[in-house]
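User: Last request for today: this protein with cytidine-5'-triphosphate, please.
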Amino acid sequence: MSAASTGGPRERRMFDPAAPLADAEIVVGVGGGIAAYKACELVRLFTKAGARVQVIMTKRATKFVGPLTFQALTGRMVFHDLFSLTQESEIGHIQVADRADLVVIAPATANVIARLAAGIADDALTAVCLATRSPVLLAPSMNVNMWQHPITQANLRRLVDVAGTFVVGPGDGFLACRWTGPGRLAEPADIAEAACRVLAPQDLAGKRLVITAGPTFEPLDPVRFLGNRSSGKMGYALAAAAARRGAAVTLVAGPTALPDPVGLDVVHVEDARAMEAALATHAWGADGVIMAAAIADFRPGTPSEKKLKRTEIGLAPVISLDANPDLLGGLGAERARRGSGPLLVGFAAETHDVVGYARAKLAAKQVDLMVANDVTAPDAGFAVDTNRVVLVEPGGDRELPLASKREVAHRILDRVVELLAARV
Ligand code: CTP
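Assistant: Here's the final one, the structure of the complex with cytidine-5'-triphosphate:
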């Protein structure tokens, strides 16, 4: 996708968020647990994204799902018997191990985890894991007691610490064994996302980013608040994209309906002053702060501790408001005072003269980049999944084409990567 240029920052190579899976050679190892059927969906997601998939099943996994299912989904023979003359000669565990860009094991049972941690290679899956140089991503799934058993936890720690193995999940919920708790296989979409993260270029590795998202709710009484229409989608998309590219992300989130993205720290706040406190804790140790939150500029002056009653407040109540601090402007001023501090990126949601107001805010708040968008456009702004933004910098403006918020997040981060590189 190309960016329409209006001068300013030069053209650059962009990171394609779907690229990590396209054309990747992925080994999907299926362990012998009831969640094995969910691996079918995972394989479908991988092949749909353009990956080539080689499935390896443990012997017990074949009791849950027939190898033919995976063969039909991948168009490749399934490898489940290391000592089968046909399978070993046609597939070959060393070739599979060498060719793999990534090995994903879903479900990773307690038994598979234990064998991997011990370096045992007594079947096709464990032999490939021991022979490969590619990253290995485990999606554990088992009974809650097996998961919480100190031996399972120690095995997993050993794999993570000694072998650099990646782990996604498990989730919490009702398990097939009728227990409730941790042990549920992560959702296939989350496993695919984690796989993308492992495969993605790590151009933000070693960087610490604080990203704010969502609205703030300013209390009027314990029941009511003043809020705004921000859904948090843009900020959440930025946080997930930055984490995928290797950043250590702290997401400071106002109230939203969105689930916490996997693999990053989320600090939930309600109002502007709580967001200010979270920024005071996290911003100054960060390389960059991206303020995608729609922070209320005003709050009810004296919120009531008890619910305001209709009969007590009269027929035409007046709410007096106090000004909230300008958090981004405060960071800009403090950075100017200190002479150093994080890269600062703001958002300007406008309804008219979009770039003009964004440029004024760029100067007033003393920041490096303002992302401007027209929130009245039907395909941009609040609650929709797409956005159309202009990057406004001291050196010029650059209009990005309409794209999904995920895509826009990556385009913004492309620029953040460059701006961070230019600072050192
Ligand atoms: N912002 C902030 N603190 C506030 C209000 C806004 O840090 N009290 C940040 C937002 O997160 C955003 C940027 O400042 O990154 C611009 O927000 P916006 O609401 O567009 O600007 P305001 O300064 O509030 O100006 P106005 O509402 O008059 O357009």
